[in-house]
């Protein structure tokens, strides 16, 4: 029990940990609004207030985070030219998303012209979607390399060569983490598409709610202390 409490404290001490928790509140509230709007309008209104407040809080938590893209490119440009090319576009898309998200937050809080909200939302979501597409491609490349590496290790075991079996376990753990990242990116891509090109599927409360929770819980899993 104490170990779980310690892990929760560590998780919530991280900026990403707080973000995933508040994101859970945001999208659970969205689903509650959809469920209660005809049965209990008063409760639905309260859930809507929680959803809006959570969304604005998350934007405040992300202040300055667009700089992490520069840091990612500086520290780990990638093992191959192709990977570096993908990394540039992925991080550039994320930087655009997080940078213009600042202005979206300011417009929705009334600090700057509220009429700018729609334009800022479109630019931010467009950069976000570009980033997610390239991040997914990068993750699939690394998953493919991990599978090939695992096959080579298993072939070595069959030939009775001395191999560290823990290496296979590490590859499998890495694969799960990357699949969680792909799940989160695809879920967030659906949310971004709802801003870029509104449509009945992406903009439906259930689609947005489930996508938001998939993204939040996949991120929760990846950030939870091991």
List key phrases describing it.
226 residues; mainly alpha; 8 helices; 81% helix
What does this entry look like structurally?
The chain is an all-alpha fold and 226 residues long. It has one domain (2-223). The chain has eight helices and no strands. The longest helix has 42 residues, at 117-158. The chain starts with a helix and ends with a helix. The model has no long low-confidence stretch (mean pLDDT 89). Belongs to the peroxin-11 family. Involved in peroxisomal proliferation. Promotes peroxisomal duplication, aggregation or elongation without fission.
Count of helical regions = 8
Distance between the termini: 15 Å
Rg from C-alpha positions? 20 Å
| Count of separate structural domains | 1
Hey, roughly how much beta strand do the residues contain?
under 5%
Number of strands: 0
The amount of helix comes to over 70%
- Tell me the structural class: mainly alpha
SSE pattern, N- to C-terminal: HHHHHHHH
Low-confidence stretches: none
Mean pLDDT across all amino acids: 89
> Based on CA inertia axes, which overall geometry fits?
globular
| Main sheet summary | none
